[in-house]
Amino acid sequence: MSSAQCASEYCNQGWSEVLTHMSPYGYASFGVAFGLGLSVIGAAWGIWLTGSSLVGAAIKAPRIRSKNLISVIFCEATAIYGVIMAIILTNKIKAPETSGYYLEDGWDYNGYYYAGYGMFSAGLSVGLTNIASGISVGIAGSSCAIADAQDSSLFVKILIVEIFASALGIFGIIVGIIQSNACEFPTFAISNNYNN
Amino acid sequence: MATPHPTRGTGDLTTFNIQHGFAEALLRGMRSSFLKDADYHHLTQCETLDDVKLNLTETDYADVLADSNAMSPAAFQKVAVEKLVCEFQYLRTQTVEPLSTFMDFITFEYMIENVMLLLKGALGGRDINELLEQCHPLGMFKESTMRSIPTFENSARGYQDLYQTVLVDTPVGPYFAQFLMESASSRSGGSYNVLAEVEIEIIKSSLIKYWLEDFYNFTMKLGGHTAEIMGELLRVRADSNAINITLNSFGTALNEPAMRTSDRKRLYPGFGHLYPAGIANLSDVTDEEELGRALEPFPQYAAVWNIHASGHGDKTIDDAFYERDVQMLELAFESQFHFASFYAYVKLKEQEIRNLVWVSECILQQQKDEIQNFVQVFSQNAPWRK
Amino acid sequence: MAEVPPTRMNQQVFKLKLKAAQGGHRLLKKKADALKVKFRDYAKSIAETKSGMANDASGAYFSLTQAEYAAGNFKQKVSEGSMTARIRVGAGVDNVAGVKLPVFSKYETGASADNQSLGLVGGGKKIVAVREKFTNLLEMLIKLASLQTSFQTLDEAMKVTNRRVNALENVTIPKIEDTLAYIGRELDELEREDFTRLKLVQGKKEEEQKAEAKRKALLPIAPGKENEADITAEYDAGDDTDVVF
Questions:
Q1: B62 shares contact with chain A (CB less than 8 Å)
Q2: B156, B190 in Cβ contact below 8 A?
Q3: For residues A24 and A22, what is the distance between their CA atoms, to the nearest angstrom?
Q4: How far is C113 from chain B (nearest CA, A)?
Q5: Is B26 near chain A, with CB under 8 Å?
Q6: Which of A175, B63, B269, C195 is deepest in the core (most CB within 10 A)?
C-alpha cells in the first residue's frame, strides 16, 4: 500500500478491503477455479516427475512401462479429485432469483458470505492438498519406476508409499466436501421470517 | 580459477525431474547392466578365456562382444571401455545444463591424461596416429586440436606457441595456465622448461589437483543434493589422493626435504576432510610411521591405514581405497535427484572393467588363488552389506 | 695300404704313428669326459633356472596385472619415458678344458631411474614391486642366456671332440694297426721267402758237394795231389776288377 492516504471514500483501504468487498459469488467461483486448477497443476507436476523417470527407466527395462502407468494414474487421480470438487462446488453456486440490481431487503447475508467463504476455502483445501498429493505421488512414482527397473519386487512396496501419498488428496477432498456441505447460497430473501 | 558458474541450479526434490529426470532414469536403468554376483561367480570359475567370453555373452556385454573377436584381457578391456564411452556419450547427449557441464567435468580427468600423453609423446618424437590410438576415448576432444599438440617444434618458442594457441583452447587449458603460472613463480625459465623438466606424473598430479578443486567448486555452486553427495565423494577422493601421493613419494625425489614443501605440498588438493589441518601434517611426514601418526586424528583414514600398516592378508592400501570408493559410489545410487550418480556410474564401470581384466588375467596366467581379490560392484556379499 | 711299402722303416714310422694316435685318443677322451661333466652341470643348472624362471616370470607378469589393477594402464607412460637403458649385458669368456665359453653378465649403466613417481595418486607401491620383480627376472634371464649359450657352445665342442675320439678310435688307429699288421705280414713273408731260397741254395750246394765228392771218389787222385790244383785256377782274374776306392 502506498503511504499516501487516499482521501476519497471509494478508495480501498488495503487488501482487507478487497477481500471483504469481493462478492461471495466471486469467492465461490474462485474456490472452484483454485480447487480444479491447483489439483490439475499437482497432477500435471506429478505426471511430469513420474513420466520423465518412467520414460528414462523404460529404455533399459521396457517391462516397467505399462506397470508403472499406475503411478501416472495415481497422479491423474488428484486431477479427478479436483474435477469432482469443482463439479460439486459449481452445483452449489446458485444465482439469486431476484432480478433487480440490488439484493432484496432481508437477504440472508450471513448465509451468503458463509457460502462464499466456505466454498472458496473448500476449493483451496482440495487444491492445496491435491497439489501436495500430486507432487508427492510424482516423486514416489518416479522412484517407483527407477526401483522397478532394478528390482521388480520393489514395485508393490513403493506402490504402497504411493497410495499413502495419494491418500493425502483424499483427505483434502473429504474435508472439502464437508466444508462445502454447509454452504448454501440463498436464492431469495428471508426477511419475512425476520419480522416475526 | 574461473570455475564456470552453473547457469541454473539442479533443482530439488520437486523440480529436478523437470530437466534431468529422463537422463537420471536412463542412468538408473543402466545400473542394471553391472555384472551381478552370479556373473562374477561364473566368470571366476572359468578355465579359459573362451569360457570367459561365453559367460560374458550372457551379460550386458553380449552385443559388443558379438561384434568383436576379442580374446585377450586387453581386448576385453578395450571393448568394455568403448562400451562405457558409448553409453556415456549417449547419456551426455540426453542432458541439459548444468548436468551437461557436470558430465564434461567427468571427462576432464581423462583429457588431462590424454594431453599429457600427447605432450610427452611429442617430446619423444612419436607418431601422432600412434599416440591418438593410446588416448583414453573418454578424454577425446576436437581431433584437430589433439592433432596439433605434437606438431609444435621441440623448442622453448615452440612450446610457447603450443601453449598460447592450442592448450588454451582445450577444455583443460585453464589448469595448464594455473600450473604454468605456479611453476613459473618458483622456477626460472619459460613453459618449455617446465614441461620438459618436470616429471609427467607430477604435472599430471598437479593438473588433477586443479581439476578436483575446480570440480568441487562447481559442485558446491550447484548446491542441493548434488553438493551434498558429490561434495562428499570429491572430498574423499581429494583425501585419498593426498594420502596416496604422500605414501608413494617415499623413496623418490619428492620426499627430499627441499621438495617436500615446494613440490609435494603443492600436489595436495585444497579441500577435503584432511584440509587444512591434516594436509599441514601430511606435508611434513617423511616415512610411513609418521604418515600413520598424521592420519590418526581421522578415524576413517586411520582404519584404511591400519589395513596397510598391519600388512596382514594380501590387502594393500590400494585395495582398501578401492573398496571404500566402491562403497561410497554405491551410496550415490541410494539417493535420487542429484548428479553424483553420473560420476559414480563412470567410476563404478571403471571398477567393473578393472575387475573383468583382473579375472581374465588371472585365468590367463593360471593364478586361481588370487582370482577373488577384486572389489565387486553392487555385490550382495560386500563387507558393508553384511 | 698297398701304397705303403712294407719296409722296416715304414714299420718303425707307423709304430710311432700308432703311439701318437693312442696318446691323442687318450687325451681327447679325457677332454670329452671333462666336457661331459661340465655339460651335465650346465644342463642341470639350466633346468633349475628354467623351472625357477617359470615361477618368477608368472609372478612378475602377475604383479604387473596387480599394478595395472591398482594404478591403471601405465605402459604408455613407461614407453614415453627416456629410453636409456639402466642395465646392459656384458660378454666375458670362460675356459673349460680348452673350450672358450661366452659368459654374459649385467652391469648398470648408471643412467638415472626415471618414472620414479609413477602411480603417484595410486598404485605406486605396486609399481615398485613390479619393478623389483622384473629386475630379478631380467637377472635370471641373463643368467639363463649365459648358460644356454655356453650349453650350446659346449655341445658343439663336445661333438667335435667326440667325433675326433671316435675317428681316432674307429678309423685312424685301426688303419695304422692294419698297416702295421700288413707290414709285419709282408716282412714275415719276405723272411720266409729268403729262408726257402737259402734252403734251396743250401740243398743245391749240398748236392753239388755230393756230386763232387762222388766224382772225386771215382777219379782217384794221387794223394797230396789234391791240393796241387791251382787254387787260383778257379778264380778268373778277369772276373774281378780292381776295386778302386
A1: no
A2: yes
A3: 6
A4: 10
A5: yes
A6: B269
